[in-house]
Amino acid sequence: MSYLDNILFAILLIIGFGFFASSVKKIIRNINLGVDVNRKDNSKARWKNMALIALGQSKMVRRPVAGILHIFVYVGFIIINIELLEIIIDGLFGTHRIFAPYLGVVYDVLIASFEILAVLVIFAVTVFWIRRNVIRLKRFINPDLKGFPKSDANYILYFETVLMMLFLLMNASDLHLQNVPDPVFHKAGSFPISQFIAPIFNGMSNELVVLLFEVFWWLHIAGILVFMNYLYFSKHLHILLAFPNTYFANLNPEGQFDNLESVTKEVKLMMDPNADPFAAAPVDENAAPAKFGASDVQDLNWVQLLNAYTCTECGRCTSSCPANQTGKKLSPRKIMMDTRDRLQEVGKNIDANKGVFVPDNKTLLNDYITPEELWACTSCNACVEECPVNISPLSIIMDMRRYLVMEQSAAPMSLNAMMTNIENNGAPWQYSQQDRLNWKNEN
Ligand code: SF4
Ligand code: SF4
């Protein structure tokens, strides 16, 4: 590589990482639009969750075929990135396989394992493509997965295949030049896979093979930088966010709902005959009026917003949702995708208005998620249980329902009748307090 190449490479790296850093900044800003919630407790259990679920993929393998194939892709992604470090150093300083002399035989083992992983990744990605496009598993063709999200999954599969092929072709041309021999391409590495590809370069001039090596090298590294920046627009953000998401996930038993603090305070006041309603904290006149539940993304907490960015759109939640299975409009995957779409929309609004959100007459409720979807939920927690990265679509559904009930009195008729009965009779039935045992006489 010439000095000019090294400089060009440095510029490419700065642009690639610069764009990526700006996307990360936007994601953090958007997540912080959410209401605060304390997830600093019990760090031991949180680290354990992250190690088992994000790193160990423990929930992925509950569906073994997809789970094991996903492990190939995931381990391939993590381990091959070690080689990326070497590629970056070689690109910046014009060296050739700089780690080889320092690592000796370990280097050979590493390169060999990268190559085997590359083949496993290509195999896994091919099976994933067949499951999506030929077998057409129901969760991949559900109506809630349409438009860009549907194509996004395929784009990534193509991308990963091309990157792995470029990686193997780069190694194969390198191996050919090492065997010629060429003074720059000194002997380094062990190539169990690309040794079978290298013969395609036989009969070509050294100059041509060097040129091809450089083309593969540049396309490979440029492809990785493009991939990294594509993540911001894609469901594949989960390869980064699965770690914080599992760390900050709710540790309470599924089914244990949190109480709204504002409601708890009011109930305490109502129940305590000695309570002085004016003894509360001094009123801050500038504070936003308390809002019960959530109608837009800013009313959700930051973990729910992190959930939305982490969703892999795998559809395991929707495929196990009893409401969806029985033909209701609800899809927990769509709840997460809608939340992310709305959050992105709010983020763009803030970017366009010098850092301030200008009301756009839209909300997550109604413009993205309808009351019909929300009321179809049985609150069974199957979606939470199934999610491979510990996302809770149910918590968003419940907060939006709370808004409908407490801010808009817009519960379905049957629920309104029950709530009125509880308010008047202390029980869900229409009998007065003294007749409350009448329920057992009903058929
Ligand atoms: S909690 Fe609601 S959304 Fe989740 S699986 Fe059950 S019915 Fe579906
Ligand atoms: S919420 Fe979880 S299970 Fe549902 S689509 Fe997203 S990642 Fe998959």
UniProtKB/TrEMBL annotation:
Coiled-coil intervals, chain numbering: none
Organism domain of life: Bacteria
One Pfam family here: Fer4_9
InterPro entries: 4Fe4S_Fe-S-bd, 4Fe4S_Fe_S_CS, HdrC_iron-sulfur_subunit, Helical_ferredxn, NarG-like_sf
E.C. number(s) listed in UniProt: 1.-.-.-
Molecular function GO labels: oxidoreductase activity
Transmembrane segment boundaries: 6-24, 68-89, 109-130, 155-173, 215-233
Keyword Transmembrane helix applies: yes
Keyword field contains Transit peptide: no
Keywords attached to this entry: 4Fe-4S, Iron, Iron-sulfur, Membrane, Metal-binding, Oxidoreductase, Transmembrane, Transmembrane helix
4Fe-4S ferredoxin-type domain: residues covered: 302-333, 367-397
Protein name: Iron-sulfur-binding oxidoreductase FadF
Source organism of the structure: Flavobacterium collinsii
Gene this chain is encoded by: fadF_2
